[in-house]
Write a structure and sequence with these properties.
It comes from Hibiscus trionum. This is Reverse transcriptase. The chain has about 160 residues and is mainly α. It is about 55% helix and about 5% strand. It has a two-stranded antiparallel sheet. A hairpin with a 5-residue loop joins β1 and β2. The radius of gyration is 30 Å and the shape is elongated.
């Protein structure tokens, strides 16, 4: 039985390699068979009720995956963090907690590739790098205020 099954499996592969991508009867039968096999005609909800209309199938699948990927959050992160060794020293933490500065914004701008993807305004980093002497104070002030929580990210987060 195993030999016969292997024989038919290999023959099907050969048949597919020879005829699979051609616009012929074999291709259409294979595609139709696969489409029928992959079609979801009925699902059962949590109560065991059968759902078979397209709209109800869509609603049931959407609610299932919404619930599946929904998180109620972590009750106590301290329990999870108990096994993590701290690697940030107090000096590092002080540096991380410092206010952002004009020089840091300029350093970040200079580190950007000048001709990569432009921003929403259509201006790439090259514009800001070339005309920093004109726009630098205003741009850095806005960036610093944004990083310090004085502006809402929604105003710039349209990507």
């Amino acid at each position: 039985m195993e030999k016969e099954e292997l024989y038919w499996e290999q023959r099907a592969r050969v048949n597919w390699l020879q005829n699979g991508d051609k616009n012929n009867v074999f291709f259409h039968r294979f595609a139709s068979q696969r489409q029928k096999r992959n079609k979801v005609e009925r699902l059962f909800d949590d109560s065991g009720n059968s759902v078979d209309t397209t709209k109800n199938l869509l609603n049931l699948a959407t609610s299932y995956f919404t619930e599946l990927f929904h998180s109620d959050g972590v009750a106590s992160p301290e329990v999870i963090l108990e096994g993590v060794e701290p690697c940030i020293t107090s000096q590092m933490n002080e540096k991380l907690d410092c206010e952002f500065t004009y020089d840091e914004v300029l350093k970040a701008l200079k580190a950007m590739s000048p001709l990569k993807a432009s921003g929403e305004d259509g201006l790439g980093a090259i514009f800001y790098q070339r005309f920093w002497h004109i726009v630098g104070r205003d741009v850095s002030r806005f960036c610093i205020e944004l990083l310090n929580g004085e502006h809402d990210y929604e105003t710039i987060n349209h990507t």
